[in-house]
Amino acid sequence: SQDAAHDLETLSKHKVTHILNVAYGVQNAFVNDFIYKTIPILDIPETDITSYFPECFEFIEKAKNQDGVVLVHCNAGVSRAAAIVIGFLMNSERLNFASAYSLVKNARPAVCPNPGFMEQLHKYE
User: Fold this and answer.
1) Catalytic residue among 19, 70, 74, 82
2) What is 49-75 written as a DSSP string?
């Protein structure tokens, strides 16, 4: 969520090095301390979330290859960020939707991608 992204103590505790900001209108708080990528995505069912996958996945993969830790956040950490992470797991780990969703839901029980994102993730499988 944007709260986590603006909490330096939490970011440091989790050893975050990279931040993927997929919120719309949320500023990056610590530009001198982390590597940021900002991709403003609207949280509406009509948004083609999969069109953002290549750019998001490239940023996450690059960070992982540098032994980095990535925070993916939107405003509430419920829909957009969750959809990006679910898609990333489906792509990078070759998981089906149910497995990727379950992993993300277990890590953050509040996740609830909007119905349009859910439909797109099912089709992405």
Assistant:
1) 74
2) GGGGHHHHHHHHHHHHHTT--EEEE-S
